[in-house]
Automatic annotation (TrEMBL), chain A:
Transmembrane segments: 21-42, 180-201, 242-265, 300-318, 338-358, 365-384, 390-412
Keyword annotations: Cell membrane, Membrane, Transmembrane, Transmembrane helix
Protein name per UniProt: ABC transporter permease
Subcellular localization(s) per the UniProt record: Cell membrane
Keyword DNA repair: no
Organism: Winogradskyella bathintestinalis
InterPro entries: ABC-2_transporter_component, ABC2_TM
ABC-2 type transporter transmembrane domain mapped to chain residues: 19-412
SUPFAM superfamilies linked to this entry: Periplasmic binding protein-like II
Annotated membrane topology: Multi-pass membrane protein
Pfam families noted in UniProt: ABC2_membrane_3
PANTHER family: MEMBRANE COMPONENT OF ABC TRANSPORTER YHHJ-RELATED (PTHR30294), MULTIDRUG ABC TRANSPORTER PERMEASE YBHS-RELATED (PTHR30294:SF29)
Automatic annotation (TrEMBL), chain B:
GO molecular function, one term: ATP binding
Ranges in a coiled coil: none
Family affiliation: Belongs to the ABC transporter superfamily.
Species this protein is from: Winogradskyella bathintestinalis
UniProt domain ABC transporter: residue ranges: 5-232
Gene3D superfamilies, sorted: P-loop containing nucleotide triphosphate hydrolases
InterPro entries linked to this entry: AAA+_ATPase, ABC_transporter-like_ATP-bd, ABC_transporter-like_CS, ABC_transporter_ATP-binding, DrrA1/2-like_C, P-loop_NTPase
Listed Pfam families: ABC_tran, DrrA1-3_C
Keywords for this protein: ATP-binding, Nodulation, Nucleotide-binding, Transport
Identification of the protein by name: ABC transporter ATP-binding protein
PROSITE patterns: ABC_TRANSPORTER_1, ABC_TRANSPORTER_2
Amino acid sequence: MNHLPLIIKREYLTKVKNKSFIVMTFLSPLIMIALVAVVAYLSQLNNDKQRTISILDESGYLSDVFQNTDNTTYTNLSGLNFNDAIALVKEKDDYGLLYIARVDSMDMSSANVKFYSEESPSLGIISGLEERIEKRLRDLKLQKDGVTMAQIEASKTNIDIAQESFEGEKSSKIDNIIKLAFGGAAGYLLFMFIIIYGNMIMRSVIEEKTSRIIEVIISSVKPIQLMMGKIIGTSLAGITQFAIWVILGSVLMIIVSSIFGIDLAQINSPQQEMMDQAMQADGAQAMAENVIIAIGNLPLTNLIIAFMFFFIGGYLLYSSLYAAIGAAVDNETDTQQFMLPILMPLILAVYVGVFTVIEDPHGTVSTVFSFIPLTSPVVMLMRIPFGVPIWQQGLSLVLLIGTFILAVWFAAKIYRVGILMYGKKPTYKELFKWLKY
Amino acid sequence: MSDLLVANSVSKNFGKFKALNQVSIAVPKGSIFGLLGPNGAGKTTLIRIINQITMPDQGTVHLDGQPLKPEHIRDIGYLPEERGLYKSMKVGEQCLYLAQLKGLSKSEARTRLKYWFEKLEIGDWWNKKIQELSKGQAQKIQFIVTVLHQPKLLIFDEPFSGFDPINANLIKDEILQLREEGATVIFSTHRMESVEELCDHIALIHKSNKVLDGKLNDIKRQYKTNTFEVGLKSLHREKVLSEIQNTFQVLPATFKNLNDDIKLNIKLDDQNSPNDLLSFLTAKAEVHHFVEVIPSASDIFIQTVKNN
């Protein structure tokens, strides 16, 4: 008798009709958007703050370098002595005082240039000041050697290296960013999905144990059917929730940004900076085109198919382990000791993905971890946008499926014995013994 | 009468622990079969094997002449000792789900549920959640779920726990009626008075072995010690007493009675029949009470377990 559809339906409906599930489904995007909006708003507030920086330049080289900007006003305090300047800055409640000591040559060191302020100044301000001073001094030194300003200007060049593979596939920096974005999103999505819904499966197994319905159920269905039904039903509920999150999130995002006029994309992130650099090189129009070309350049068919296989394979592998843990213990507090071996490879995979794949998508570390079954789904998904040979993907997938079958066998054993064991907190040794029952 | 369920030298090990050792039972069709034993004797393991929850290491189990197979799940209704229901699920939905797992169609399940809900007067619970019900109420639902698919074999493990005496009686009557309608019942319990009341066959499992098996009355006959409980009235109490003690093996007895002076348990040897005893007694005193001591299921249980 095949009860799988029936079990899947019940698991799905129970999850979806659960009050906290419904609340989370609709509240999470709201909370997320609210958080993002608050962060964006605050950072905007920070950027908009007016500040005055006083300059006391005793060297005479630099006083005219500092031009007022929208947010920063520079006051030149030339003529005052250092102590008076400090006192004045304190009295005016300025942001700080940039003090440049009298020097004989243009070779300045940090001993000669100092910034005094109430609070420690922001990194951006300091590097901005440094940049200006360095540029002026370089110009001055060059001029001293007889180079004209016009020559200096003319010497500036901007190179954006065009990249092309041996097969003639063109790519650019934008390509890499897009690849990272796609790979990262896929890997991270899988990671989140496993953590959230793996836990949900575990809890639902524990619930059946604590409510003691389990023996009633498995006198009607095979434990493995129940387990698979649980995994699939919970996953479908998860996909539903994810879909609602994505739709609701984007709608809310649009509404919030149009109402409050906050450009949510303005939050600074490393990707953003890379984007900005790329943008400077090309200009917005060209960039938009490049992004579209870059997406077009992605191995999309491969990406989609691989995403489906690795996502499903990886998720099923982990969720069967979660189900086994749920079956082995009596309550959620006892799960801790068994969670670590599951979370470790998962976190490792994300670390490898974030640090190594970005650096070198086809290096030894990335390649090896994209074969090891517990890390392969995340790492491989991050690698694929950079182009992975089909044989590697195939081999990795075969290993993954093999491990998955092994894990289901293992989980089913633990599950079959564990669901009927009450009141005991098993050790690893006992779990191993259960395999032989 | 043929046997509905036959287990033949069933053994089961959990690691080094032997849970069942060569246990054979035969449950006659239409009987109420008491499966007895101290805690941890192996009853639950045997029941789980019958339900195909665990597989035996050795031995076979036949249901209705066929070796157990997955389709037999429909023919068995099992009320486990460790039982419960999904707490946050509604009563009606839950019953429908569990009935469908037993192979009933949804509409069929609905019709039968309606019948049972009316019979047990719980029609208005349909949309309640289990967590809103009391333990006894939830047990009623559990009972309905167990019998709903009209199985040939019903297995009840401590069915009366959680019931008040009124509802326990109600359930007992339902079990008897199900038997009238042709079901066979395996009944596992520690309450010997319900064994006495319900079972016609029993098997006793102790330390993984079957130590006793058969019709309850036959077993009682085997275990009876030819002892008679006697209540006498006499003016010469001491004299009568010593005369009896000289002739028979006598033990003190306690039973409730209105006004008997002498209360005795008298054990007969093979040479004397009950009639001999009675005529001996009537000659000496007024006999108010004369009953053969039949060992209770509880006595048999305790005696067997102690001797093994």
